[in-house]
Amino acid sequence: MPGPLGDATRRRLTDAAAARLADDGYAVAHPETRAEPPAVATRRDDEAPVAVEPLTADDATPTVVASRLAHALDRDRRACFVVADDATAERVRSLLADPPLLADERDGRRTFHAGPDRIPVAGGGYACVRFEGLGEPTFAWRETDTPVGPVPAGPEVDAAAVDEAGRPAVPRLVCEVDGRVVAVLAGVESLREPPAEAFPYAYSRHPDDKRFRVRRGADGAVVESASGFAPMRAAGYVPIPMPIVPEHVLGPAFAPERGETAGSGDALDGEPDLDDAWDLIRVDDGGETPGGVDPA
Asked: For labelling, which of 9, 39, 192, 268 has a CA lying 20 to 30 Å from the CA of 179?
């Protein structure tokens, strides 16, 4: 799969992991396309193949780890992440440990990592916000129980329903920019097709003159026209990143209501366990794999 690894480093990590897997009885193939991981290992017909995914320290991010794990799951494989140092190994473990692929989780409400994708809004265009501070803004996405009343929602999302405790049945999804709330949606499913009015602004490229038009979310009025992305950014408008929602990236089988029984923290019988979907190998500078495969 494409990535920032140099060819030599990528080959060293891949070859070391492939050798270790071969010693464990796997047959290792090296796909010729960069749309696949550099090595795929198979052993028995009833055992999932293993996708070898080398990671440098710069690769150990929520976006890269989530996308490579999703790629493996989509092909009914386990992901075997290969790293060269303890710090990177610990970073990968922390990203995939409880709560997996989340920044935090408390009382059933999650805080998400921001991802690389933009948020398409109903009617066309992508959500954005005005930011005039120095540097780049920090985005945060989190679930909360307030406000209880009506909030913008996607199609077929019941924003008004409450549970027996009076909490919203659909958690509120809050987007913050440098600690300031800029948008509230009815749950993560509303991200699939959020109404434009849920966000301060949205931008789109006009089909005739190819210029970006920035429209106010509340009424659709054009507030800025820019010749390209850089001029739009210079005018103070920044795209809002899509949060990394585990069940959206990995599939609905990993939605929180399916993965655990209420209050138990244990996977339901027959439901997939994310811990079974990945392994970790650390390769030292000499190309050895101390300790072999490190169980998730």
From this structure: 192
